[in-house]
Amino acid sequence: MSVETPVFSLSEQELEQMERKFADIQKLAQGREKELFGVFDGPLTAEEAWALKFLYVHMPLNDLADYDGTFFLTHVRQALAIRKQVPWGDRVPDYLFLHFVLPVRVNTENLEDFRDVIYAELGPRTAGLSMAEAILEANYWCHEKATYIGSDLRTLSPIGMIRNARGRCGEESTLAVAALRSIGIPARQCYTPRWAHCDDNHAWVEAWADGKWHYIGACEPEARLDQGWFSGPARRAMLVHTRVPATYTGPEEITVKSGPYAELNLLANYAPTRTIAVEVRETDGTPAVGAKVQFQLYNYAELFPLAELITDEHGEVRFTTGYGDLIVRAVRDGAWGQRKIRIADGDRFEVVLSKAVGEQPVDSEDFELVPPPELDGPESEPLPAEKLQRHEERVAEGAALRRAYEETFLTEEDAKRLAAQLGLPADRVWKVLEPARGNSREIAAFLEERVPEYGEWPLLLLESLREKDLTDTMRETLTDHLTGSLPWKDSYDRELFVTYVMCPRVLFEMITPYRTALQSQFTEAEIEAYQADPSRLVQFLNEGWKVHMGPGNLRGKAGPLGTFQLRIADQGALDILFVSLCRSLGIPARLHPNELKPQYYAAGIWVDAAIGSVPEEQAADADVRTGQLVLRREADGETDAPNASYMENFTIARLENGFYKTLLYPHGKSDVYDTAFDVEPGDYRITSGVRLKDGTVLGRLTYFRVAEQEQTEVTLTFPAPSRHIPVYGSPDPKTPLWQVDGTETTLGALCQGPRGAMIAWLEPEREPSKHLLRETGELAETFDALGIPVVFVLGREEDSPAPAIPEAAAGLPNRAVFAGDPGHRALRRFTDAGIQLGSGGFPHLFVLDPEGNVRYVQSGYKPGSGKEALQILSDL
């Protein structure tokens, strides 16, 4: 179609460029031409047509596979209509509207029709407000809908998050961005991919108001903008970024531009920064043009790449980061080089490609990585007391609204009645209804409808899913996978059948009703042939599907049916399609639990499936037998090593194409000694480390090689930090606190223990305090074994000294108690004793020795602080 007048302030050149890119998308997605592009045959305004084209041009491959043109047109029309209705609509420049209001996708969530749903509630609440006030109001609304809880890596959609009423920070910020875009306010999700000072990451939101970007903590409202518990940690970050459609031309630094997306480096909004240049050289001194350069920091016991850049014609890359330490690794054409850099030392560094790709060091080497220092933030004008009081009231009102909604979920008594009605074990029914939360009635209805006909199988299907799947998987989908798998229930033993044939969950894709549709693509004879020889299914995909790699954070998210129709996919989506096809045709299949390689089950063994862009040498060696790695402890008395815990203080990685790829074993896995790990032959590296209280990491890299069909023994060692435990002060043991029943007690009475005690002042509605509660619950067995008292203190108004037990208080140690501290008077006794609280705010965590001396202090957000406290108590 032709356009007579430019739209969205786009120049003629920009419109022509978009037309060319749109033609490329049409060619790329011709496998779903009618579903995606048929919408352009209908009546469209010029604005609608170009807005649609803008979405398509910047769309990841999985969206082309999974959604139809009518879906995107609905979003376009809603966004354009809302822009005309909100009072600030004409104040938002076109380039911000296109890049930060119009897009449907925020993160890796399943897309859905959320705009009108959210606008119907939030639009009237923000109609008479300024943009800044509307941002704050939207966050109060988000707080009413959902709160923080840790969960797996699949991202719930905004409506799914509302139904579940809780989620991790990436899901909270996805909801908040969707809410703001639904009222026409430009918004973007911001991430620090990994913190430098502790083992975790975090996501929050930036929103634009009248010419300026502001930040908020998603679903964690404050009384004003640019304030949040993460403000202090963000000043110690080494990277904060956001993803944006690649045509964005704003003032922010672009770190990476890949395909339809660009990554903006926003760190300068939060922390002191320095832009550094890294020159990569060959051994003869010539520039290494086109080398891959990774900037790595230690987090979750691996050297994690914050960013990967490609050197220019001068062999150089530039990167803006914080004032901490990084490992820089560069690889090109069979050679690599690596060095540690300290950003405070300068702004130019050199890396020489002095090693061959297949060559790694021998034995081990130690390193130290120091994070940026802890800094105080700018002073803010104090808010009026009445404004603070109203804010606290609104936070409490929001939490009460959310709890009232949660009270509508099915209860354990409901589960017992349903189980009795269906003749199922009550405990098993409750285990699938409780995590389903707002979706519990849908799950119960599925059981009611299907158990009478199929017996226990519907329950077994539900038990095969992850907890999060139960919150957003509907009856139609469950029925498709139940009825589509049962023809093969007698072909395998039950565990193999349920786990690798019936179960629709493969990795982190959205579960959809694809099984019957995929089965309809094959004749009975073809299905029997593939069952007899699954390698023919590998050949079928390799001959009919192309591999096209898109943005890294969105790979492997496309649903199987969409990928089947599109006939083009990234490697992860193609692997998921293979596993889903196998299961749909009655062939057990999986992604290898540690390597994530597609495999099918034949003749009693798991066989690798060489699909898509698998390197030729790997495809040729698909049946190569593994080697074995056995980890040994250090000799007794040799060192005071910590207890080994995977992804907490050590990881194993294999050298692939010059970079080390961390093997996937369960987080926190501790049964690692004297047990054989089956691994592929190759060069490996163990990264082990000890994080000190200030966030500094003492690390060790241990190198070794595993040969095919041979056992390799490696001693797992850790650097040995100084074990000196200082005394920070001695608070008065007679400091008064209040018990749950309202009676007065003392600090000394609550903290009596032969090994000392842990005590922490909390803000239970905030994510940092929830982290500490959850971590303490995970450590309950050790706290109980040592008999250590754990005291959580909650501030209360003068007329209400007794503490209310917070929601996130399940599974705590036996000796855990809650106490009240009206006005935080007892906390002030600690500072009166000379104990300095950190600037990070709550929680304030202390370890007291048996004499009542404070031997550990930690304030604010720091995952792992509970383990640090426990380590101090153990050492005492």
Task: For this entry, give a set of tags.
876 residues, 5-stranded antiparallel β-sheet, 36 strands, 34% helix, globular
Give me a quick take on this structure.
By secondary structure, the protein is α+β, with helices and mostly antiparallel strands. The protein contains 30 helices and 36 strands.
Please state roughly what percent of the residues sit in beta strands, choosing from under 5%, 5-15%, 15-25%, 25-35%, 35-45% or over 45%: 15-25%
Main sheet: strands, sense, barrel: 5 strands, antiparallel
Number of DSSP-assigned strands: 36
Based on CA atoms alone, the radius of gyration comes out at: 28 Å
For the largest sheet, list the strands in their spatial order.
Answer: 11-10-13-14-16
Give a structural overview:
- With 876 residues, the chain is α+β, with helices and mostly antiparallel strands.
- The chain is built from 30 helices and 36 strands.
- Strand 13 (325-332) and strand 14 form a beta hairpin.
- Helix 8 (131-145) packs parallel to helix 12 (385-406).
Layout of secondary structure:
Blueprint: H1 12-28, H2 33-37, H3 46-57, H4 61-66, H5 69-85, H6 94-100, H7 115-126, H8 131-145, E1 147-148, H9 158-164, E2 166-167, H10 169-182, E3 187-192, E4 202-209, E5 212-216, H11 231-234, E6 241-245, E7 253-258, E8 261-265, E9 274-281, E10 292-299, E11 302-310, E12 316-321, E13 325-332, E14 335-342, E15 348-352, E16 355-356, E17 364-369, H12 385-406, H13 412-422, H14 426-433, H15 440-454, H16 457-463, H17 469-472, H18 475-485, H19 494-502, H20 515-519, H21 524-532, H22 535-544, E18 546-547, H23 560-566, E19 568-569, H24 571-584, E20 589-591, E21 598-602, E22 605-608, H25 616-620, E23 627-632, E24 650-656, E25 659-662, E26 676-679, E27 682-691, E28 697-706, E29 711-715, E30 736-738, E31 744-746, H26 747-750, E32 757-762, H27 767-778, H28 780-786, E33 790-796, E34 816-822, H29 825-832, E35 844-848, E36 854-859, H30 865-875
Parallel strand pairs: 1-2, 9-15, 18-19, 23-29, 32-33, 33-34
Antiparallel strand pairs: 3-4, 4-5, 6-8, 7-8, 9-12, 10-11, 10-13, 13-14, 14-16, 17-28, 20-21, 21-22, 23-26, 24-25, 24-27, 27-28, 30-31, 32-35, 35-36
Helix pairs in contact: 1-3, 3-5, 7-10, 8-10, 8-12, 9-10, 13-14, 15-16, 16-18, 23-24
